[in-house]
Amino acid sequence: MIDVTPDAVPVLGEDHRVPGLYLATGLSGHGFGIGPAIGRIMADILRGHSPGHDLGRFRLNRFFDGSAIVPGPY
């Protein structure tokens, strides 16, 4: 089994419904390859630093805010 989101794009960042809960999931088998980068990005987020990337595409809220579900990786 692999974890995958409906749009095949990972979820990264804080779940604002549960303050303090941070997610890095939905890597759908690619975690081995991109795990080091995701780890670095999540470490920056948890320390309150800028991750250096626009993570808007990876926000959890995209599934709840009325956004269209656009299959990734775009």
Structural class: alpha+beta
Give Rg in angstroms: 12 Å
How do the SSEs run, as a string of H and E? EEH
Shape descriptor reads globular
Largest sheet: 2 strands, antiparallel
Separation of termini? 24 Å
Extract low-pLDDT stretches. none
Strand order of the largest sheet: 1-2
| Helix count from the secondary structure assignment | 1
Mean pLDDT metric: 90
Q: What proportion strand?
A: 5-15%
Topology record:
Blueprint (H helix, E strand, L loop, with lengths): L10 E4 L7 E4 L5 H16 L28
Antiparallel strand pairs: 1-2
Give a description of the structure:
The chain is of the alpha+beta class and about 70 residues long. About 20% of the residues lie in helices and about 10% in strands. The chain has a two-stranded antiparallel ribbon with strand order 1-2. A hairpin with a 7-residue loop joins strand 1 and strand 2. It is globular, with a radius of gyration of 12 Å. The two termini are about 25 Å apart.
Descriptive keywords:
22% helix, 1 helix, alpha+beta, single chain, 74 residues
In short:
This protein is α+β, with helices and mostly antiparallel strands and 74 residues long. The chain has one helix spanning 31-46, and strands spanning 11-14, 22-25.
